[in-house]
Write a structure and sequence with these properties.
47% of the residues are buried. The radius of gyration is 19 Å and the shape is globular. It is an alpha/beta fold. Strands 1, 2, 6, 7, 8, 10, 11, 12, 13, 14, 15 and 19 form a twelve-stranded mixed sheet that branches. Helices cover 12% and strands 30% of the residues. The chain has two domains: 22-106, no CATH class; 128-328, 3-Layer(aba) Sandwich (Collagenase (Catalytic Domain)), CATH 3.40.390.10. Bound molecules: zinc ion (ZN).
Length: 331
Amino acid sequence: MRNLLPFRSASAPTSKVAALATVAAAVAVSAGIATAPAAFTTAAPHADEQAVTNDGQNIRYAGLTVRIPAAGEGVQAAAQSTSGDISLTVTRSAEGKLVVKTDDHEHGDEDHGDEAHADEQAEAQAVTASSARPAAAKTCTDRTYALAGWKLPSFKWYYNPAGAPAAVRTTAASAISAGTNALVKACGQKNLKLVPAYSGQTKAAVQVGAAGNCIGNDGRNVIGWRAGSGRWLGMTCTYFKTINGKKTVTGTDTALNTQYKFFTTTKNCNNAYDLQSVVLHERGHSLGLNHVSQSANASAVMTPALSACSVGKRTLGLGDYRGLAATYGTR
Ligand SMILES: [Zn+2]
């Protein structure tokens, strides 16, 4: 599960990948879920970082909890702290070996929380969204991407409209479709082999908890709304299983956080975020893209943060597309 952060400053962001703590431990392989506390060692690279713990059933890190997956399976979970973006990926090999990765993006230059609630005091203003893209000149030259290592065999998805904010209730479905369909092209290229297929509205729940936890996998790929308690715009939970040596996604859900305002047209975007852009970013996670640097790769869709009132990232950058092409191939 990965999330997208609100980001309103036009100044240079200070994103960083702070840690990639990898720990491994042998657990019982006879049962699908380990039932006894397994020997588990962590090697945090810095003393001030939070520890990864394992009670034999769950792995916890910085407020995130994921259940230890069955052998050959894995799950990525993430939640946003007040200072950034945190994820936890737990993979278990067919032999039972656990590999835990954490990924921490900090944004120390402003307080997003005040921004999030500023709309409650603000007068309604006619603010027109900006189509300016950060580092626009690099959109079709920056080839950088990062891969999570999994692949969707096909991308059949559903929309659950329950809880949609009034401002976008009638336009959300088409904006979500537009954001999803933007996955297949960039910079004049449009030959990606994976083609998303919208399968209609559903009452099946988005299996993302309000706190940003992965709460289950019904095998159906659902996007919908959640009154999230964390400072995230969108959150994606992705489950994968190793089949013939390859990580294959068995379900991926995305929650959109109604604690923030969204817009779908370019008018009256004050303190709101572009739904289409948020969806495109989250879909990138579902398809196997990881974040790239907020500062070094500013033109990419897969930077951790998005600015309010920006429609500049409704299309993939070259690096985003190359990452997908490397995973899915092109026609
Ligand atoms: Zn993200």
